[in-house]
Design brief:
117 residues, alpha+beta
């Protein structure tokens, strides 16, 4: 019984440390004029969706700050493929005074779209 306790005392902390860093954030990619995209993945036990969102938004903010511009999010995507959450963001880096630099109003996209033909 004592040996089993010692094994768990060693395995459990190592498992937690391993999962804490389980995830990736891609490089910011240019997809058009002043328009970029970045994705981040995080394991469910390592912060999941909220951690992936934070990582992607940090990259987006850093890119725009590097250019001396303001961040405007144009689209986001989320996916859960057990056990990983993926968060993607498409954004623009706009200069102060740009006509497209306005306070955004976000609406959730519908899960189902019905077309009347």
């Amino acid at each position: 019984m004592i040996k089993l306790y010692r094994v768990w005392a060693l395995v459990l902390p190592l498992s937690i440390v391993t999962l804490a860093g389980c995830g990736t954030t891609g490089s910011v990619m240019s997809v058009g004029p002043d328009t970029y995209m970045v994705t981040a993945q995080k394991h469910n036990f390592a912060g999941g969706l909220s951690s992936a969102q934070s990582n992607a938004l940090e990259q987006a903010n850093a890119k725009c700050a590097e250019e001396g511009k303001q961040l405007i999010v144009t689209n986001t995507t989320t996916d859960f493929d057990r056990p990983m959450y993926t968060f993607g963001i498409t954004f623009r880096c706009l200069s102060q005074g740009d006509r497209d630099l306005t306070r955004p109003t976000y609406q959730q996209s519908p899960d189902v779209v019905i077309e009347n033909r």
